[in-house]
Every structure is written in structure tokens, then in C-alpha cells.
Amino acid sequence: MKNRFKVIGYYICEIYDTPEWLRGVSRQILSVSGCIGGQHPRWECFTGGWRKGEAQEYQERLQLDKGQYREFSEMAGCLFDAQRLDVDGRFPLLSDARGFYEKFCQAPSCCVVSVSTTTEYYKILSDEWKGSNSHALTDGENDNSQWLGNDILGWDIGGFHSFLCNSLQKELPGAKFNGLGLLGNVFPEVEGFAHQIQGKGEPVEWIPCRIGGYGQPVEFDRLTGGERWERQDSLHGQSVF
């Protein structure tokens, strides 16, 4: 059942071309890890710290004029101050993520995604958050999104690492990837993968996660050039929509 997956948070992710060192996984990649994927808004929008020229480049990437970009940054800052946005670009409320996306982020190859996991792993992550500087905590609501794939994530101070950050897919010969670099294996298999790589790569607790998307299948076709999307509604099966 879908309600077995508890939402960790929502992200506005930009689909990137896969970096050279991950070639062979997929042509494009969607990730909530800042190491290999793109998330909006960037933390510099509300904390500062841009290097020379970066803010201008970012504005151009978003295809926003000066007034729109100023509003974009101000809204990001307000959400961050209200603890409705965290430094890794994670929104605890779907309404905030969708509203921000619809207003500012439709020009790049972006979509709103959810990250969720089962109750057991959600509790592990919640305990980690309590001891970190994360302030955008969710209530663990049920995930009702369209399944895009799975991932293995580990929380590190202010954001997630993906197992791909350390090329740990090489440790998992049974891993199957879709066109966005997400695991196409059913959740119990991904859970087994997470156990296999514990203690490897980053010093984090590797957690199996479900990645879901919000929008119609035609929107994902536009973003990915016709990738065939499936929906995984249960831990053990998946159905084509």
C-alpha cells in the first residue's frame, strides 16, 4: 500500500546530464543529492556565499528577469526563515514546493518530487535530524505520488548523499537503473542493497528511499524524451500507468 511510505520531504529537482564518471548508469540523472543532481532554490539564495558571477549565471539558468529573480530569492529567504525550506532545498510541505515550482521553476527541466521511505527507516532518519542543523522536518505523511524509481540515500549534516556519489552501484551487480539514474528494482531489493553497502562510502546510514513525481506522465515524457514511467504502489510490485 502507498501508505507504507512516509514522506521525508519534497524537492524541486532539475534533470541533469549524467556526469562522465557515472556514464553507464543513465543518460540523464534526477537526484536529491547536491553532489550529482540539481535542486532549487540553491542555498546561496537565502544564506549568501555566491562566488563571483554565480548568481548571474543562476538567474540566467532559471530564465528569470531581475525582478523575478529578486522575488525568487526573497521568497526562498522567507520560507527558510519560517522553517518551511531547508538548506538542501527540501520543502516539508507539498503545497510550498508546488507553489514555488509553478511560479519560478518551469523554464528548466524541473519537476517536483517526493522522497519517502518505510516507517522503520523514517524513524532512523528522524532521530538523525534531531541531532543535526536541519529545521524543515515533516510529519511523515503518506506518499501518494507517482513512482519514478528508488534511491539509496544517507543524511550528512545538511543534505543527502546518494550511493551513486561514491559509485557504490559497482558493489551491486543486481541494480537496475531507469532513464533518470533511479533504481528500477522493487523496494525490498533496494532495502537489501542498502544493507550490502552499509559502512561503505560516506560515513552515513544508508536508507532505501522511494522517489515520486507530481505531474502527468506527458510532463515526464517532455522532460526525458519519452521514457516509459511506471508506478510502484506497494513494496513488492509495480504497475504501468
In short:
This protein is α+β, with helices and mostly antiparallel strands. 29% of the residues lie in helices and 21% in strands.
What does this structure look like?
The two termini are 16 Å apart. A hairpin with a 7-residue loop joins strand 9 and strand 10. This protein is of the alpha+beta class and 241 residues long. Helix content is 29%, strand content 21%. The strands form 3 sheets. The protein has a 6-stranded antiparallel sheet with strand order 4-1-5-8-6-7. Strands 2-3 form a two-stranded antiparallel ribbon. The chain has one domain. The C terminus is likely disordered.
Which blocks of ≥5 consecutive residues have pLDDT under 50?
A: 228-233, 236-241
Terminal-residue CA separation: 16 Å
Number of domains: 1
| Residue-averaged pLDDT | 86
Tell me about the biggest sheet? 6 strands, antiparallel
The gyration radius over C-alpha positions equals 17 Å
Order of helices and strands: EEEEHHHHEHEEHEHEE
Q: Give the helix proportion (percent range).
A: 25-40%
What is the count of DSSP helices, taking H or I runs of 4+ residues?
A: 7
Question: What's the total number of strands?
Answer: 10
Secondary structural class? alpha+beta
- Gross morphology: globular
Could you give the order of strands across the largest sheet? 4-1-5-8-6-7
Oligomer: single chain
Q: Approximately how much beta-strand content do the residues carry? A: 15-25%
Write the layout of secondary structure elements.
Layout: E1 6-14, E2 16-17, E3 28-29, E4 38-40, H1 44-47, H2 54-62, H3 66-81, H4 94-104, E5 110-117, H5 119-130, E6 146-156, E7 159-162, H6 187-196, E8 207-214, H7 217-224, E9 230-231, E10 239-240
Antiparallel strand pairs: 1-4, 1-5, 2-3, 5-8, 6-7, 6-8, 9-10
